[in-house]
Amino acid sequence: MNYTGRIILTDDISEAIAKTKQGLAASDFRVFNENDPLKIKDAREIIRQAHLTSESKKTIIIAAQAFGEDAQSALLKVLEEPPNNIEFVIITKNKNALLPTIRSRMMIELDRKEKTLADFELDLYKIDLEKITHFLKANTSKASNNDGSNNDDTDTSSTNANDTKDSTTKANSAKDNSSAKASSTKTNSTKDSRIKARELVQSLLFALHKLNIKLEEDELDMFDEAIVEVDNYRKIQHTLLPLLLMVHNKIRVKQ
């Protein structure tokens, strides 16, 4: 089959973009939507850029955090029949973020970092609804603690009119710094929670593999969808519950 472009599956979008750009002159590539979802207006701009006349090969890198279905539908024709000298590269964390018609037209490449996953915390052959409930509560509590942040209150006093103005300025500056620090801490904590949630999903899948428990295609799709939900900040208990219930039912049938 003649593929019309590439899809790169990665854990780190920015790093995958950097690798794709290596060896290309600045005029030979264009990156779209690295930090934003792909919308219909972006699709129209991609199509416009693709049809600009060029004597040299150009690479259009589409690396959105999420892919709107309308935007993907608008891109179908140009992805299936790219103009001369145009290569499309789509970078995503999950193949299920893309329409099947796009996936079938483009070569899929894996660019995942190998890492050691911790063993899943539950014995899958002994899980029941009570253990699932306790497990989800424990991990929800951990996520909530990670997302918390403390704000420092700044108190100032003055002894005269000139000092009052100076103290007020310092107080406002201190509050701004405190707010910025709190915001940065919360952002980092949220990122840590997402990483933890992703690792839980992956370690559950790996645990099933080690136990030689085979999953049907729709069950594997559930894990792909769970990763997408984690990346879209869905709460960990809402992401893991369907997976654990599916595993629980599968184990019961096997036993």
From TrEMBL:
Keywords for the protein's UniProt record, in alphabetical order: Nucleotidyltransferase, Transferase
InterPro entries from the UniProt entry: P-loop_NTPase
Enzyme Commission code(s) on record: 2.7.7.7
Isomerase as UniProt keyword: no
Signal peptide bounds: none
GO molecular function ontology, one term from the record: DNA-directed DNA polymerase activity
KW Disulfide bond (keyword) present: no
Region (Disordered): 140-193
A Pfam family the protein falls into: DNA_pol3_delta2
Biased composition regions of type Low complexity, renumbered to the chain: 169-188
Name under which the protein is recorded: DNA poymerase III subunit delta
